[in-house]
Specification:
By secondary structure, this protein is α/β, with parallel strands linked by helices. The protein has two domains: 141 residues, HAD superfamily/HAD-like (Rossmann fold, 3-Layer(aba) Sandwich); 64 residues, DNA polymerase, domain 1, CATH 1.10.150. The protein is built from nine helices and six strands, in the order E-H-H-H-H-H-E-H-E-H-E-H-E-E-H. Strands 3-2-1-4-5-6 form a six-stranded parallel beta sheet. The radius of gyration is 17 Å and the shape is globular.
Length: 217
């Protein structure tokens, strides 16, 4: 894969750059338990990773006959995340960002709200790497809808086909492809069945590919 063939990178945050899925999942589980007394099963923690809170709340209501208010659960979940979250980058992610900083325009496009994203980036010392940031707070529809990616591409003022998107889940991959961008799946040891035509790399491997490319600075 030739990373230098692209004009811009768009990166997802949760599960792609930072190991935050476990915190979001636990916060959601805590919110569900607080409002219904139901405890998520281990497999439902993983199921949550590839969905979003309101959708999964409705799924649990249908599955178990619960009467959870999706918006109330979402608010509780976001509050709980703020209490327990610690920003932890996946191995090689910071080095990848540092290598491309100043060489390639980079943006963040995430389903998380700005109220979570900015503190997370500041805590991890990552704000400096991104030319622009698009969150679910900026759009009407979240991934897998392509709106977040499309908005970010317009901010970067690049052609979709010359934009490379880094994602860890199928909903993000679907959003990137629907926006006309190219996509690479970031393997952070999650049990995801990626499409056969989507390249899959760890951050360590992507960093090695970066260091083999001509310096664009």
């Amino acid at each position: 894969m030739k990373l230098w063939d692209y004009n811009a990178f768009i990166l997802d945050l949760d599960g792609t750059l930072i190991d935050s899925g476990k915190y979001h999942s636990q916060a959601f589980a805590d919110a569900v338990f607080a409002h219904s007394g139901y405890r998520l099963k281990p497999n439902e923690h993983h199921e949550f990773f590839s969905k979003h809170s309101t959708w999964f709340t409705e799924t649990l209501n249908e599955r178990y006959g619960l009467a959870l208010d999706p918006e109330q659960v979402l608010r509780h979940k976001r509050e709980r995340v703020q209490e327990i979250f610690v920003a932890e980058l996946f191995a090689g992610a910071r080095e990848f960002l540092e290598w491309w900083h100043g060489k390639m325009p980079m943006a963040l496009a995430t389903n998380s709200p700005l109220s979570f994203v900015l503190p997370a980036l500041e805590s991890a010392g990552m704000l400096k790497y991104f030319d622009c940031i698009t969150t679910v707070s900026d759009v009407k529809k979240r991934k897998p809808d392509p709106e977040i990616v499309e908005v970010t591409i317009r901010k970067l003022q690049v052609a979709p086909e010359k934009t490379l998107v880094f994602e860890d889940q199928l909903i993000g991959i679907e959003a990137a492809l629907s926006a006309g961008a190219k996509v690479v799946a970031v393997d952070n040891n999650q049990p995801v069945d990626y499409p056969v035509d989507v390249p899959v790399y760890t951050w360590i491997e992507l960093l090695e590919l970066s260091r083999q490319t001509p310096d664009r600075a």
